[in-house]
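The records we work with from here on pair a chain with its fold. A complete example follows; check for yourself that the lines match position by position.
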Amino acid sequence: MANTTGKKYGGRTKGTPNKTTKEIRDVIRKVIESNVCEMDIWLKEIAEKNPQKAFELFLKLLDFIIPKINKVNFTDTIKVDKECSFLNVLEDSTIFDNEI
């Protein structure tokens, strides 16, 4: 009999990564890491004929090395006494005080 309650029973809990997908990504990551020098050569060869295709391949390879950033929604409100913008924050910041 099918579950019509909308409640989940059994299986993975929400947010638990799929084990098979993780293992496949790990294998692909290891193949990429062990062939970095060759991939550089391959991408350069492709770029000579089709730079756009080489760039697209490079971006696709990044998906296996660098994790994607998830969008974060901020729902709280912040009270500000003065007009605030990103540029005002940068101007007031001491981050850029140390010149190199």
About this structure: Residues 38 and 54 are 14 Å apart (CA to CA).
